Structures are given as C-alpha cells and as structure tokens.
Amino acid sequence: xxxxxxxxxxxxxxxxxxxxxxxxxxxxxxxxxxxxxxxxxxxxxxxxxxxxxxxxxxxxxxxxxxxxxxxxxxxxxxxxxxxxxxxxxxxxxxxxxxxxxxxxxxxxxxxxxxxxxxxxxxxxxxxxxxxxxxxxxxxxxxxxxxxxxxxxxxxxxxxxxxxxxxxxxxxxxxxxxxxxxxxxxxxxxxxxxxxxxxxxxxxxx
Length: 205
Description:
205 residues, alpha/beta, six-stranded mixed sheet, 5 helices, 6 strands
C-alpha cells in the first residue's frame, strides 16, 4: 500500500470513528434529556403527595389496595367501626382527617348504616370523605350523602367543608397526572394518582 492510499484510509477511518462517536453522543444526550424530563415530571407527583403530608392530616383508606406513590403517607382501616378511627386522646394531634374509600372495581359492599356513620363524621368531626368508584353511589344517595343527578360516567367524589361541599368526578380526569408517570400506571392506580394531584391543585385541604 502506497503512502497516499494509506493516508486516505486513515482519514476515512478517522471520519468513520468520529461519526460513530457523534452518534453515540446524540443517543447519550437524548437519554439524559428523557431521564431529566421523567424526573421532573415524577417530582410533580411527589410534590403533590408531600403537600398532603404537610397538612398533618390523619389519612386512612378502606377497600381495595390503594397502590399510591411511596411518598404518600396513608394508613389502612378494615371497617367503619369507631375503633378503627383515631383515638380520642390523639384528636388534638392531627389537624384533620381524610377517609378514602377505594372501590375501583365495585367489589365493596358498604351498608347504609356505615354511610350514615361517615355522614356524621363529616358533619361533626370535619372529616373529608373521598370515594373512588361508582358502585356505591346509589347507597350513598339513599343514606343522604347527596341528592344531585350525576352523569353515569362519574367515578369519584370528594366531600369537604363538613360535608357541605362536594366535587363529583374530581379524580376522573387522568390527564392531570404527568404523562411519563401516567403511561406506567394500572387502571386501578389512575384514579388514586389523579386524586393526589387534584388534592394539591384544588387545595381541598
């Protein structure tokens, strides 16, 4: 191989290597950008969870597994018995109470007396009640929790301000969840994450 051909070969090899290095750099930069966007979007969910946590509320849920973000502090109860709720000596420790009834698949069977009990908790103890589902709406209406005509597609409601104020369908719009987070959630998780995002966005507490 003569010198001229050798030089051409080396130049071509250098260009080829440089091109591959550039391509790799583009992929690395793109991956870093996507990772940064994911972290920024995921942080919005964490911020919403921490907003609720910071309110010093006693947050409990009843029903199916909540599968909420790890940053969301919540306990679980297994009945509407007074023994399941915060004890009288701890009443002054918390600034308020939130009960989440998680019923995405309509598997719960809640007695009218239980809904009446929760109605009393809202009126006299300023509980916030959240229902995620739709199967219990008829029983809730019969128990006097609402008298409105609501769309058949409604799948959530929140009661606040001693049960006087309510917002049907508050967790039905899943687009409030950042897309990079939303695309990895199950159908049961979507209303839970939407609930958390809306709690911060609308400042129910």
